[in-house]
Amino acid sequence: MAIPIVNNIKAGVPVSTGRCFKSPDMDFAGLLAVKSAAMSGNRQPAAGSGNICLGVISKKQPTVSHLLVDNPQFRRDCWRIVHSPVNRHKPYTRIPENTAIYMHPETREITWTHDDPVAGPQDNSIPGVAQRSLSPDGDYDAGDDALFQQEFVKAVRAYRGQPYEMLDCYELVVQGLKDLGVQYNGAGGLKTVLMNRARSEGAPVNRYLSGEGLIQTVGRHAYGQSFNDIRDPTATLEQIKRDILPRLQEGAVLSFSTPARGHTGIVGQTADNWMFLNSGLLDNDRRNGVREGVGEEALAAEIENWVRRAANNKEPLSVNLGMIDQRRLAPFWQNVEKG
Fold first, then answer.
1. 13: how many CB neighbours lie within 10 A of its CB?
2. What are the φ and ψ backbone dihedral angles of 239, each rounded to 5 degrees?
3. For 53, which DSSP code?
4. 335 has a pLDDT exceeding 80
5. Which burial class, exposed, middle or buried, applies to 31 when counting CB atoms under 10 A from its CB (0-12, 13-18, 19+)?
């Protein structure tokens, strides 16, 4: 059940009570979370006096970054807040639904209340991510990247079931970035930069409006290989899987292209398999959902599809994998606009 949350705090409005604002259409679960947060103010720092309530974690707003991006006062500084020294190792990925999220207006420390009244101190570690310090020049490290990629996957997964007419494969990846606070459209947006890059090279303006274009412009390559004459699809498939497997990470952008067509999506992971989140004809979707649209397919099967298609059509195939680099996205966070 989706929980309508509070994300209408206006810039310039003083907030000092530490209470979470209630939306007129908030349902019972949301109201209960707000009341629980307010009642716990004397035992948890999250609801203490002077803290601003950003909202409540819900299916529509599954992460702290979603709450920050939807707040007109803080959306421009979303990732600076999340990755600040006081916040960077908090267990964001383990926050349950219906949890009220708070921020201190001066220190910008993110906190939240526990439902359990005897809960101990918050465990600020992130599973599988080494705790590192910010480098002297303020660049983000691998721990920051891991958190960003996890939230990228969550943002894209939220669109599963959307028809292809609403979001094609490239639009899906872009929408995930926009949901995390990246300005894509408008003057100074990422799309403008991608198009200007193509113009400067004398290429069609849409040359870099692709997964591969995103990797080249705001990412870092993890794997790239072209296969010009695929005579043994099985051998080629095994080579790709062998080479790409050690480089797979959740949130990585994966792109396939032949002279006739291209396709992109991002890598996800379940308990037992690597998955491919994309929008298209879903012949390998692990769920019985929409036939053509946004879905989550077995990654190995999707790679095999493209290898065999290229071999059957006697076309060259290019496969590229890369991670979106937050540092290269920094100019677009600074100028983020909603929508």
1. 9
2. -65, -45
3. E
4. no
5. middle
Query: Of 293, 323, 302, which is closest to residue 159 (Cα–Cα)?
Result: 293
DSSP alpha helices (H): ranges in 7-71?
Answer: 28-39, 64-69
Residue with tokens 């946004």: 294
**Other Cβ atoms within 10 Å of 7 Cβ, number:** 20
Q: Give 189 or 6, the one with higher predicted confidence.
A: 189
Yes or no: say if 75 and 54 are a contact pair by the CB < 8 Å rule. no
Model pLDDT, residue 188 = 85
In this structure, the strands spanning 253-257 and 219-227 are unpaired
Give percent of the chain above pLDDT 70.
Answer: 72
Cα dihedral 292, 297, 300, 301 in deg (nearest 10) = -40
Taking alpha carbons only, the member of 127, 178, 177, 148 closest to residue 83 is 148
Tell if the pTM clears 0.70, that is, is over it.
no
The per-residue b/e assignment along 79-116, b for 16 or more CB within 10 angstroms, e otherwise, is: bbbbbeeebbbbebbebeebbbbbbbeeebbbbbbbee
- 240-281, pLDDT tens digit by residue? 999 999 999 999 999 999 998 999 999 999 877 899 999 998
CA distance 115 to 18: 17
Residue with token string 């020049």: 137
**How many CA atoms lie within 13 Å of 307's alpha carbon, on the beta-carbon side?**
19
- The residue written with tokens 């009220």 in the block is 100
Position 65: which residue type?
S
Q: Residues, the chain, total?
A: 339
pLDDT grade for 18, boundaries at 50, 70 and 90? very low
Average pLDDT (16-24) is: 39
The answer to whether the CB of 292 falls within 8 A of the CB of 278 is: no
Q: How far apart are CA 37 and CA 287, in angstroms?
A: 36
Beta-bridge mates of residue 39: none
Quick one: pLDDT at residue 180? Answer: 86
Which of the pair, 234 or 138, is modelled with greater confidence? 234
Given a contact cutoff of 8 angstroms between Cβ atoms, the answer to whether 180 and 65 are in contact is yes
